[in-house]
Design goal:
It is a single chain. 46% of the residues lie in helices and 13% in strands. It is an alpha/beta fold. It starts with a strand and ends in a 7-residue tail after the last helix. The chain folds into two domains: 202 residues, Rossmann fold (3-Layer(aba) Sandwich), CATH 3.40.50.880; 103 residues, Homeodomain-like (Arc Repressor Mutant, subunit A), CATH 1.10.10.60. The protein has a seven-stranded mixed sheet. It has a two-stranded antiparallel sheet with strand order 3-4. The protein has a two-stranded parallel ribbon with strand order 8-9. Helix 1 packs across helix 7, helix 6 runs antiparallel to helix 7 and helix 9 crosses helix 10. This is Helix-turn-helix domain-containing protein. InterPro entries: Class_I_gatase-like (IPR029062), DJ-1/PfpI (IPR002818), Homeodomain-like_sf (IPR009057), HTH_AraC (IPR018060), INH-QAR (IPR052158). Keywords: Transcription, Transcription regulation. Pfam families: DJ-1_PfpI (PF01965), HTH_18 (PF12833).
Amino acid sequence: MRISVFVPEYGVIEAITPPFRSFHTANEFLITFGKKPIFEVEYVGLNEYVPANNGEYTVKTDRLLKDVNETDLLIIPPAFGDTTKGIQANAAAIPYFKKLYENGSSLASLCIGAFLLAETGLLNGKKCSTHWAHISDFRERYPEVEVEDGAIITEHDNIYSSGGASSLWNLILYLIEKYADRQTAVMISKYFALDIGRDSQSQFAIFKGQRNHGDAEIQKVQDHIETHYENKITIATLANLINTGRRTFERRFKEATNNTSLEYIQRVRIEAAKKKFEASRKNISEIMFDVGYTDTKAFRDTFKKITGLTPIDYRNKFAKVAYEV
């Protein structure tokens, strides 16, 4: 099986080398298990020598992308830095991605490599994962693609995508298990000290609030929520801030922020709780009250829904100071 790793112009070296090295290492483990190696791994690119990061590295490709008429799996790492510049630098590769998929190749994007993949139009009407910090930008740029917020891995019609940063390893392990076997994937996870079972990047996400929508009145509502989240906030109160009816307000708020007002309040409160768990010695009940919750179960359920962890698990994992129970 041929695995082609696309080397983007000014790509992220930390995303280019992991799939190349992992599939090579998978072959070594297969031999150890008394099996035949099954992966032919190569670097492909627009040029023979491709700069990575800010020119700190140079990767020599095995074949030019224009000469690749077929491959079993094409992996698309992200370009380094600004996504728009990355798309422009690699625009010549987009038709080749589309051609390979139409010829039967599977495609897999890593992290914000999803932007390059989405440029093909192949994701329209499909689900996709990308780095949590770039989801709003991605949705704005590609409205016909359904982004799975917080997902580590997404698979749709032989197109794969991963969430942010280290999530790319989870997709690599998933693909090794799919094309080789579970035993090899487990050995790779142990060899590289990876968590093979992680299925969400939500615990790492930082909620900033979507503010690039240009609706000044909705931004006023967001300011109110983020300033008074510890108090009881009703939809009627928020609607009155901009002198509009409840239904009109809810529609405008969802269009602007991609959240209902209730979801936005919850995310602001949980983000505040996360920061308190990380930096204070307060116990769970104290923090729950501090961020506007009075029901322990509601707080716990909402916290886990948004972060993927229970409050106590989050505190144990991310606390920066000693705490008191």
